[in-house]
Amino acid sequence: MKIKRREIFAGSAVAVLMMTTAACGSSDNYGGKAPAVQPVGDSKQVGAGSGYGDPYGSGAGGGSGAVPAGAAGKTGSAGQLKVSEIAGLGPGVTDSEGFTLYRFDKDTPKPPKSNCEGDCAAAWPAVSADDASVSAGIDAALLGSVDRADGTKQLTLAGWPVYRYSKDAKAGDSFGEGVGGTWHVLGPGGKPAGASKGSGAEKEEKKEEKPAAEAKGGELTAVQNAQLGTLVEDAEGKTLYRFDKDSAWPMKIGCVDACTDTWKPAKPVDKNKVNGIAPELIGKVKRPDGSEQLTIDCWPVYTFTGDKEPGDTTGHNNKGLWFAITDKGKKAKVVG
């Protein structure tokens, strides 16, 4: 027997939501009053210890504030810098032990200056400039140093201060990529690793992969990704994502406060201006702050600040919680 779905109204308690089903994404829901939602737990709890509670991804927003083992204890020299293959990004710089090295967009290279101090420096240990050298693929002339506020000298590459990430537990980890939309794996020339992706011939290849329907334009478009299948992009070509700490039914939103600095809630669209997505799957939901957010098959959707070029999917499978959303509202498959 099918249960008739009803619209959720503002102020409904979570307990009531769990006992009532709703035609989320239907024309009735979209055209009427948007359902109110409650964040998962108290807003102060969201992101505690998860890397969303503070702008540096340090987890300082909750819990004991303890920094995990691994790169956290590594504050010394990088030794001989090496070029290593970073999954999903291509060539990136690692230290002599294979730990991934990073740069911070809020620093400056000319003149070199670090803007990561205090709690930030606990999450992102500065790499000492002592005894640094390079191996093949890195120009020794790019090495330098900058004086930190505590008087120590930090290694720079092409002027950019160099860091490790405390949550990288072992050589080869690169969990710092894209944190806060401002931290990136360091490329051999000082730019973010993978910064050149999507340029030249690869850009042309992406254009050829897009279905002809995209030429018509639209506020949302279903596109073909060679690895992940059919994904949804907004009008600017940004990939849309869903979050496992959200819930489609009952409606809950788990990405609030500092989380939205990295994952931007997508704005509602005209469901009659979408390409390749069933209009009845398009809806909207009212967030705890009163703003409205786009939903696809009841799932709130977001863009990722770490995606730099149209068609990028660097947020997919981020922390095992964020996934590119398909034209059906499902999570795109995880490759590898």
Verbal overview:
This protein is mostly beta strands. 9% of the residues lie in helices and 23% in strands. The chain contains 5 helices and 22 strands. The longest helix has 9 residues. The two termini are 40 Å apart. The N terminus is likely disordered.
Order of helices and strands: HHEEEEEEHEEEEEHEEEEHEEEEEEE
Radius of gyration, Cα only, in angstroms? 22 Å
Mean pLDDT comes to 77
Can you summarize the main beta sheet?
A: 3 strands, mixed
Number of helices: 5
- What's the number of extended β-strand segments? 22
Residue share in helix? under 10%
Output the strand order for the largest sheet. 3-2-7
Residue stretches low in confidence (pLDDT < 50, at least 5 long) are: 1-22, 25-69, 197-217
Number of domain modules? 2
Signal peptide: 1-25
Biased composition (Gly residues): 182-192
Organism: Streptomyces nojiriensis
Region (Disordered): 182-221
Give me some keywords for this one.
about 325 residues, mainly beta, three-stranded mixed beta sheet, 5 helices, 22 strands, disordered N terminus, Lipoprotein_repeat, signal, Lipoprotein, lipoprotein, SCO0930-like
Describe the secondary structure blueprint for this structure:
Elements: H1 14-19, H2 27-31, E1 38-39, E2 80-86, E3 90-94, E4 102-104, E5 108-109, E6 112-113, H3 119-123, E7 133-134, E8 143-147, E9 153-157, E10 160-161, E11 183-185, H4 201-209, E12 220-225, E13 229-234, E14 241-243, E15 252-253, H5 259-262, E16 263-265, E17 274-275, E18 282-286, E19 292-296, E20 299-300, E21 302-304, E22 322-324
Parallel strand pairs: 1-15, 2-7, 12-17
Antiparallel strand pairs: 2-3, 4-11, 5-6, 8-9, 9-10, 12-13, 14-22, 16-21, 18-19, 19-20
